[in-house]
Amino acid sequence: MPFGEHPQRKLHRDFVSFREMLFLWAMEYVHLPNFPHQARYHRGKDLQASTVEDLARILEKTGFERLPYPRYSMLFERDDAAIRLYRPPDDSTFDIRVGMHSAEQLRHFQALIEDNTDLKRSTW
Fold this sequence. Notes:
Elements: H1 18-31, E1 37-43, H2 52-61, E2 65-66, E3 74-78, E4 81-86, E5 94-100, H3 103-116, E6 120-122
């Protein structure tokens, strides 16, 4: 098959930038594995009540500090926990992964998220 005569594929981006991908990757594979208690949540396309901004406000009220980068997806930290919030560039869905040192604090966090948002808990 000559160069350029292959079927066209629709390309899609998974990240806004290479730099954002590196920050999210570092949180996912380097920082979060240090926390023994973890959970994942996601918002599907049919769930519209909770926005990223609403979730960010809830996290900041619970003591998390938003890191200045990345700007589209978000990273949050506090002394005993970390959160990675990933948003695909061309989609309204998002997911979060949280890691905490204490199982009790993770249960409290899960109750807070489940009571105040429409996020669904994911299985690994």
